[in-house]
Amino acid sequence: MDYEKAINNLHNILTHEDKFAEINKSIFDAIDTDNSGTLEREEVESFVKSLLVGITNDDEEEYDQNERHRIVFGVLDENESGEITLDELGKFLRELFKEQIKELQDASERMKRKAASSLNDGWNSRAGQGAAGYNPAMDN
Length: 140
What we know:
Blueprint: H1 3-15, H2 17-31, E1 39-40, H3 41-52, H4 62-76, E2 83-84, H5 86-127
Antiparallel strand pairs: 1-2
Helix pairs in contact: 1-2, 1-5, 2-5, 3-4
């Protein structure tokens, strides 16, 4: 995965209001299946279920899914009106994208450390062998 590219893309979306507004509206419209201009609980539940397809365990209890939907809706429904507005979704997406940038930065750093560690391990194993045909112990 190209972490830097993903980080730059998310940063670009967050810093260009017109791009963010377009993405926010597109997501909102995709969820707002009845075109009411607000997102009802059932629409959000359906959307979350479709997002989780292939991610959740088939043996997962129905209660856990219902609880997850309740939590997601509660987070999105900032003013507790029972419906989610475009602005509420936008606030959520901003925080989600910021959090995703942090996750990607952390993953990128872990990959860099792992690569550096592997490189160091390779050098260390070769250093113990000495140069081809040269044995440092023979210098004495």
